[in-house]
């Protein structure tokens, strides 16, 4: 019953969500696929700015979720 809406990651410079992180992939012999092993918290990169950036995040909860609803 996970109803968590999740978050959006975006570039702190331009606001684009085309942001990536530096990471290491590890070969998994069982699945024959590269799997994500280590995700760096230091090297954020924006594909729109084409430079390193700081990735920010915001909740996917709608803005009006703070409005108290009368029953
Ligand atoms: Zn950007």
Walkthrough of the structure:
This protein has about 70 residues and is mostly beta strands. It has one domain. The chain is built from no helices and five strands. Strands 2-3-4 form a three-stranded antiparallel beta sheet, with no helix packed on it. Strands 1-5 form a two-stranded antiparallel sheet. A hairpin with a 4-residue loop joins strand 2 and strand 3. The protein is flat. It starts with 6 loop residues before the first strand and ends in a 12-residue tail after the last strand. The model has no long low-confidence stretch (mean pLDDT about 90). The structure holds zinc ion (ZN). The site of zinc ion has 8 residues, from loops.
- Succession of helices and strands: EEEEE
Summing up helix and strand content along with how strands pair, one would put the structural category as: mainly beta
Number of helices: 0
Q: Which range best describes the helical content: under 10%, 10-25%, 25-40%, 40-55%, 55-70% or over 70%?
A: under 10%
Instruction: Summarize the main sheet.
Output: 3 strands, antiparallel
Number of domains: 1
Q: Tally of extended strands?
A: 5
| CA-atom Rg in angstroms | 17 Å
Rounded mean pLDDT is 88
With strands numbered from the N-terminus, the spatial order across the biggest sheet is 2-3-4
Strand content: over 45%
Shape: flat
Low-confidence parts: none
Bound small molecules, deduplicated: zinc ion
From the N-terminal CA to the C-terminal CA, the straight-line distance is 23 Å
């Amino acid at each position: 019953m996970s109803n968590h809406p999740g978050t959006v990651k975006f570039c702190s410079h331009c606001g684009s969500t085309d942001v990536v992180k530096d990471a290491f992939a590890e070969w998994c012999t069982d699945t024959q696929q590269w799997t994500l092993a280590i995700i760096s918290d230091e090297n954020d990169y924006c594909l729109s700015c084409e430079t390193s950036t700081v990735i920010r995040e915001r909740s996917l909860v709608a803005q009006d979720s703070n409005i108290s609803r009368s029953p």
